[in-house]
Amino acid sequence: MKTTAERDRLVLAVFVTKAYARRLSRNEPVYEAQIYAKAASERNVRLYFFTVDDVLGKGRRREIWGWCFTGHSWVYNRVPWPHLVFDQIMDPEEGEKGAIRQLRRSRYLSWLSPHNGLPKWLTHQIVARYNNLARLLPETRRLRSIADLAYMLSRHNSILVKPNHGSRGRGITMIWREAGGTCGLRYSGKDDTVTGLTLRQALLCASSYAGENFLVITQQIPLLRVGNSLTDIRIIMGKNRQGKWLPVLSIMRIGKEGSFVTNWSMGAQEVPLDQGLIAAGLPVAQVNVLVSQVLKVSLELAQALEEGRGHLIEIGLDLAFDSNLRLWFIEANARPGKDAEHADTIPPHFACIINGALHFWSNRQKRRFWTRYRARRH
What we know:
This protein is of the alpha+beta class.
């Protein structure tokens, strides 16, 4: 029989792909996983990693197996049913997608992160509801027909066509107007330029490059540059034990020279935000003001997105200054990438995952107590 301490101890499971679990089974140095485990251990949280194949049985008779870190190696054991599940599935193998979708619908699991994250169009709609934040949004609309493409090109010299769900910079097409009524375009991650296209041809090219996702169109912002490279800003927001949002990582991404996207996976460099602004030629006094502005806006955005989406314990916010130092909000990510060089330290953006889960679990426990208390009284 469980003791009170064991009953009050949070069991947090991290949902990962089979490929991720295979790395754990080979005891590869998966530093990200080791840091999660260390952060959980320091906060008396039991944590393990599991895949869709590790949930066995049906209904309340289900059991679960998972990978636990012993301090030196990963061990595969039967583990307690989790109180909360942190969904970290990214890029699953084709054969496991259907089973993942089915497990995510299970009413026996409590998910912390929305499985479809913060898609671009939904994020835009949430932020647009707030008058103080709507001014940060570039003009954006869903791409349903050639008429949408024509409308946006009539208002902006160049636009970006993006897949609705995050793609790490892949699947994005830049389209611009040419003299004579034709269009030119470039694909993210490619140097080739295609010119002389009709609107229909441009639409077909963008759609085929983006894949299965529906598309959104947004105006292209003349981003602040460092040398000949475009820049944007990534702020990772996490929660403390009291459930308050905090900016735990602030970096500037300096894109690969000649590229119109600034994703790390597309060759961008990452530097601390203040250093990036100084590299762009701004004086230190002005940099301090701009950094304060970014952090203030990031807090407001995190609160708005949580109100509109719910159950978020981390958010990656992509913002940018343009060449006139106007601040823009580009998009958000419910599963921002994390760099972990070694497992000896716990970066704050990892610790905040555990803190956010503890806050959510504590509140849920309190709600259950008062529900039972009121039921007994009546």
